[in-house]
Structure prediction request, 1089 residues.
Amino acid sequence: MKRFSYHRADSVADAVQALCATPDARIVAGGTNLVDLMKYGVETPSALVDVTRIAALNGIDDTDEGGLRIGALVPNRTVAEDARVTTRFPLLASAILAGATPQLRNAATTGGNLNQRTRCYYFYDTKTPCNKREPGSGCPAIGGVNRIHAILGASEHCIATHPSDMCVALAALGAEVRVEGPNGARRIPFADYHRLPGDAPERDNTLQPGEIVEAVLLPPEAEAFAGHHSYLKLRDRLSYAFALVSVAGALDIREGRIVAARLALGGVAHKPWRREEAEAALVGSPADEAAFAAAATHLLEGARGHEHNTFKIELARRAILRALGQAAAGTPQSQTDKRIA
Amino acid sequence: MLKNDLHVGSPRSRVDGPAKVTGQATYAAEFTAADLAHGYIVESAIARGRILSIDTAAAEALPGVVRVFTHENRPKTAWFDYKYRDMVAPPGAPFRPLSSDEIQYSGQPIALVVAVSFEAAREAAGLVGVSYERQPHETDLDRARHDSYEPPKKRNGIAPPPAPRGDAQQAFGAAPVRIAGEYAIASEHHNPMEPHATTVVWEGGGKLTVHDKTQGVQNSQAYVTNVFGLSGDDVRVVSPFVGGGFGSGLRPQHQLFLAVMASLALERSVRVELTRQQMFGHVHRPETVNLVSLGAGEDGKLHSIQHQAIAATSRFEDHQEVVVNWSGLLYPAEHVDLRYELAKLDTYSPGDMRAPGAPLGVFALESAMDELAVATGVDPVELRLRNYAERDENEDKPFTSKELRACYREGAERFGWSRRDPRPGSMREGRELIGWGMASGVWEANMMKTSARATLTADGRLAIACATSDIGTGTYTILAQIAADALGLPMDAVDVALGDSTLPEAPVQGGSWTAASAGSAVAAACGSLRAALLTRATAEGSPLAGAGADDVIFEGGHVRSLKEPSQVVTLADIVAASGQDRIAATESAGPGLIGMMLPKSHSSYTHSAVFAEVRIDEELGVLRVTRIVNAVAAGRILNPKTARSQILGGVVWGIGMALHEETLTDHRLGRIMNHSLAEYHVPVNADIHDIEVIFVEERDEKTSPIGVKGLGEIGVVGTAAAIANAVHHATGKRIRSLPITIDKIQQG
Prediction:
């Protein structure tokens, strides 16, 4: 672990200033991922900016638009338990509960969840090459141990996946990320927040230098999915494991027909995987298997496996059918039963 | 033979439990000392080659760094290989940390940074620059198995396969029903909760107190004295608590060597603890493939059994386990051919992991038996009863006891086996296919020579001392039970001291032999102490003068006349009357000792019948093990509570083997990639459902004087096979490689 300076920011402006002053500085809040990465020598910032005392980053509040604002510092557990979230945006609460452990969810924050790094084995092992950790060094996951890796949107430089469950739900719900930086505040549609690896896999997201996540905004229209949603996560054990494939499915069904639909995949790409064509294929149809299958076909278009993960393509297709079926039936996947329903 | 008494045979909570849950139990990395320095290991990034140069200047310049040890500057230690060979070492040249520029495996320690803090040592470790000359390596058993060989030197204590009986290949060809398959088990890492660590306390004058994470303090002590040329009086190893062993602490690991080396060189106290990631740089269960062929009649009676195993080992040692012998032991056949071979990989040496060898070979055999049941239409339990071994045909000996029939019967009844529809895929509930499978389990019942001391002090307390460890199995508790009953004391009047190399001699804690061995030693020592107390209690002048052994009872801290209950002396008074502050007795127990068993005349094994229910989502392939019934025959059960915990832990271990555990290696890099508990999966609570443990009645008067056969291993042995057989029953898919992951279920 490299030595680093530590600055406790007392305001967002102070944090932004500190980030601008030290280009390789990192923000720390819960530290559930960053501190591990620093111990492994994967992250070697020369400065940490502690944002945990910034009151403006706290709180879950109703927005003027009728949605919810979740401050970047709000712990995952608090979001998952908040009555406004569980009643108006239950898909989000469910996805959070599918991730990590109670101890981690107590410490991990909303902003930190967005910015957690991949679980690619090679990224974590500094004695191996990795384009994400050390640009230009190569990607040994291609041709290597890649059972957990991406089947969509990967590049010849990186086949890592984004590990978050919460972000898959946020993507499906059409959230926005509010950031503040040296040039002021801006709102980033969730779909544009994380990026595909392309030829710059070292960049996980579209934050600009000096910018910090201030809050996540949930739009009021996403409340329409409160009755028909499911977060289905398939993994190698039933808890405390990252997704092989996860599905966030949300439907607005009126008089037997789908009038709006959201569908996102986790564990399959460098970002939560969503595609307009898949959702369009659902709208106007009855909530039946044929419609779900069409959506799955659109969402998985172009999917490509590597040596050990081709099974994920078929697994994702079946998981989409199941999750949409659960959503349509109004019986979302439980995150506490010791079973997949 | 020991009788069930007030404590023996009754469920008792762990006597060390309160200390553990309140943090009072001190583990190897928790002992401290003045001016303690901290060592952090730098590991090799390549699997085979040479260190061309190693640059420690930047590390040494870091504030707080005391010294960086490499092969270039490390102190001299013993020259001969045998000096490094510990009590349970396999044949070969044991790994010597920092001994040369040669790289033998990825993750090999190549430098030790010692600093005033762990953090400084770790930071400096990251600054050590290494350049390598790479040489071609091999870590893939699929390729290396083509160069397999029969180990030329046998490992001490590991029975090689028996000589072939009949002509198995010919009989297989002639058999009406033939089953043949290849069964593979992934490499696994032990991952005990407590990572390996050693704290060496520099006592001055060349004396060391070593707190080592070990399953044998005297094994660690002997290793240290041999390697560093120290006298036994100068090295004391004290490890009262061990946070899980599972075999990973049987052999001294490299952190012991490095911590002692640094302490001696620096003449100060040093601690070296491994990170969880570094725990993947040493001992592991070897990846193993099995080829099994069964030839049988239409009635399922076996004519021919062929079982060949190829297990991975390191380039420098021939680690060996008993993998195939079980196939000649569990079922009788006229024609038997068992072979065990090794294949060399550029890894650290594999080692013993819970029931070493047995669950690997038994997975193969019991999967094949299930295939035979399907092929012949004979119920799996009935098939095993038709092929029941009444003798150990490998050794041509009778068993000391074998209640495996009762295991099948009681396990099947509790499980509800008779309601099983044998057709694969025939049982379902909603979207889930239900599968019921079963398998047999078997493990050696051994007793090893062990000594113990029992000391009664003037305050009426009884102190038990033995060098054995308690790796979490309940050894402290069962020894307290045995001792309390022997002298009629409450358990809280008994103090048990373990895990100290100065205490009476004990072997490493492994092989499921500790309860039988240390328990018998404690029973013998307490028997001698009781006799000495009786002699004094019935001496002239005592209220019990003239009474014989059968005329008195030891209870509640007293010796009391059975005829005249008012005639009584307290144990404390006996000590006081002796004119000494204590009365002690030390005894040994072990095979071949006077009054002990003659192990050569009989074979002794524990047995089990494991029944498993799986439920598999038909569309998604998600699998859960919803029920396990494990019926165990293991002789006397000293403490049904700790005994049950042993089997529960073994079953969970077996579920992990069946579904989760797999060390993933990138063979191009020759490097283990999932080296963390986030990515190396063991079962979590959500994966565990109902587990029921049955101990069937089994009287065994030959294995150990106290009737105990041991429980540490038997719980894991048949579990993975039973689960795999249940998967077949649910889906019709025979998955012959472990772990059974969702992709294997999907692809079948």
Summary: The CA atoms of residues 115 and 204 of chain A lie 8 Å apart. Chain A touches chain B through 37 residues (CB under 8 Å). Chain A has a mean pLDDT of 97.
